[in-house]
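I am sending you the entry underneath: sequence plus fold tokens. Let me know what the token row says about the fold:
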Amino acid sequence: MIAMPDREAWIFSLKSFIGAMLALYLSFRLGLPRPFWAPLTAYVVAQPIAGAVRSKALYRVIGTFIGALATVIFIPTFINYSVLMCLVFGVWIGFCLYVSMLDRTPRAYAFMLSGYSVALIALPSLIDVSNLSISSIYDVALARVEEITLGITCSALVHSLVFPKGVGNIVLTRLDQALKDAQQWVRSVLTESKIDPDNPVDLNKLAQIITELRMMSTHLPFDTSNLRWTANIVRALQDRLSALVPILSTIEDRLGVLRNSNTGMLSREWQKLMDDIADWAAIGVENEPGDAIRLRKRIDNASPVIVADSHWEDMLLANLAAELYRLVDICEDCFDLRRQINIGLSGTMPPAEPRKTKVSTTTLHVDRRVALSSAFAATMATSLSCLFWVISGWPMGFCAPMMAGMYSMFFATMDNPVPVLKVQFLYTLLSTPVAGLYLLLFLPSAHSFEMMILVFAPFLLWFGTYLSKPATMIKVIPFMFTTLATLTMFDMGSANMTSFINSQVSQAIGVGMAVLFTALFRIANIEAITRRLVKTMWTDISRLGKAIRAPSVMEVSVRMVDGISLLAPRLALARKNGAASEPGYLSAMNILSDLRVGLNMTRLLRLMPKLQRQGIPVHPVLEDLSAFYEDRMKDDSDKDMPVLLDKIDTTLYQLACSHHNIQQNDAIAALAGIRRDLFPDALPYSPLTASQKENDYGKAA
């Protein structure tokens, strides 16, 4: 049962209606040839959040201009080659869809609009080519750009000025909640005497929240609130929260080992230190600046000095100390950035804003294979629909390739778009009676603009309330948009029963083609998508061992945490369906351990120049780790595991025997972390065993 719309939904619907009617009125006043394109576009760009409307509006205008330019180029060039032109339209839509799926920001709308704007502009103008000329093509393209841009502008203007709902408050609320959750998880990890296996720290949830915030904050520069002045700081805070995920998971694992070791518990000094860190983290932004400095000094004092006869617990403590140090650093950064955001909210540009660095959104994961298969499906659906139109000589057949291209693009980012496309097909058919009533009865009966508003108001206001909710908009989109698109026949002078029936059949064929080719080429295999994402993350780790220049630890953290956020819902679905034991999912279960290995490899890379000057070669270990992950991608990772473990132990012993300094401690902490994460069930490191292995390697050399 569908719930009744709430107050927010009615406000959104009223604003959308005002924007659409304003666009329609201005289209009539300006004498544009197809005025009903403007209100249709106004509803297409309508979003509950003002910043999202403005950001998407900008990129949609850019995409419309590019699509119009492509139309002006394609039609004169290929007008005499009908079959080739069908292929060109399909390839263009497929190419634009592919590029848009490689960008997980609002910029993707520019590429998407570039694709289906060609279908919207070019195909209706090809119904009658007898009077077609370059100037007429240009006039048609210019008119569509004007109508579409007018609709976008009116919608953005109304949503920005009338009861604007800013994305800033939503981002800030979720950001504060994420920070609060992180503080609670810090306390949970540091103060529990035993890690409860039935109530683990939900780091996957934190990773998902961070990625959702990252996507949402891309609208911040366009927002109506003062938070837009702190967009860089918000993104930098998200980066720091990303870095907390591997740190907390590492600390949780190390404490689990140390608390359950033969000694039974950590020393009182260590537990007091962690309790104090937990208390400091719980206070948050109200902390005194000197508190973090004192905590870091205590961590340095508690960290063991590693020497040649140091044992595994000492190295684990060194690794724990390094992670606690990073935890304090990251938390301090988070609290400082949150204070900077408060400055921005007061309307003042924070002093850190102009120089605050952030990790680029280009580091986020994309699935090129899914993008390519989606693009191919869109190309085939559009090209064959267009070819069907050309061969049949059916005047209203242009709706088929237009709808095929648009619907192939709309839901391509989903793992399995076919069920949603089937819903679109069903509701497109159900919208036919309503579209017919408006086109053939209500609209011709309206003899003034005021009467037209009264005619449209019941339908658009009621169904517009359901556009604001993701759960209901899937069904409402085809119902509303198909009806509005049908009204463009009134502009074309073809508002009669024959043309209407032909257009509806043509639209249904187009949506059906989108369903068919998406089902053929976008077969949903969540396990394969999961396995591919895991292998992408392993590829990133394997490249670290061969890197000439060490990447940013923050950048590696952000990219890997983004991958975890994409894996988490798929793993949850696999557990729900009882498929978690499948090979594709098993490899993803311990991806947090691989993330920690990658970060420690990055730290070793950054330390490598100084270690090499001290005569400690860590590069061979990094190369072996790289080869290990390459073998993992080939499902052949077990063959060299004993050799890799021996190499790690030998290098740990060499580091332990070297002169004690900061670099030595950091390298031992990183390598001990790699050993623990890759070989959790291996026998503990022993200096006697490691020295024997070093002698054996020396003799072999």
Observations:
- DSSP finds 28 helices and no strands in the chain.
- Residues 158 and 510 are 33 Å apart (CA to CA).
